[in-house]
């Protein structure tokens, strides 16, 4: 499988939870340069909410930060 971790060349959001008994992990990189990581289900949910509110599609399709 390809490494799905986001980086400046491939910005995005990646969340993993291999099994119900393991904590979720997440990482995010935005084309504007912002980065975030989280470990634990609640922390990953909060990271995704921050991403949705401030990065990714919040920047629009034009590539402007």
Question: What does this entry look like structurally?
Answer:
By secondary structure, the protein is of the alpha+beta class. The protein contains one helix and three strands; from the N terminus they run βββα. The chain has one helix spanning 41-54; strands at 12-16, 25-29, 35-39. A three-stranded antiparallel beta sheet has the order 1-2-3, covered by helices on one side. It is globular. It starts with 11 loop residues before the first strand and ends in an 11-residue tail after the last helix. The model has no long low-confidence stretch (mean pLDDT 84).
Topology readout:
Elements: E1 12-16, E2 25-29, E3 35-39, H1 41-54
Antiparallel strand pairs: 1-2, 2-3
Task: Summarize the entry for a quick read.
This protein is α+β, with helices and mostly antiparallel strands and 65 residues long.
> Separation of termini?
31 Å
Strand order of the largest sheet: 1-2-3
SSE succession: EEEH
Helix and strand composition category = alpha+beta
Quaternary arrangement of the chains shown? single chain
**Low-confidence parts:** none
For the CA atoms, what is the radius of gyration?
Answer: 12 Å
Largest sheet: 3 strands, antiparallel
| Mean pLDDT over the full residue set | 84
Tell me the number of strands: 3
- Give the CA-based shape: globular
Helix content: 10-25%
């Amino acid at each position: 499988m390809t490494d799905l971790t986001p980086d400046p060349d491939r910005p995005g959001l990646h969340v993993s939870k291999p099994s119900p008994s393991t904590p979720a992990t997440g990482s995010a990189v935005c084309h504007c340069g912002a980065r975030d990581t989280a470990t634990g289900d609640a922390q990953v949910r909060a990271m995704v909410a921050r991403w949705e509110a401030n990065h990714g599609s919040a920047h629009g399709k034009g590539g402007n930060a």
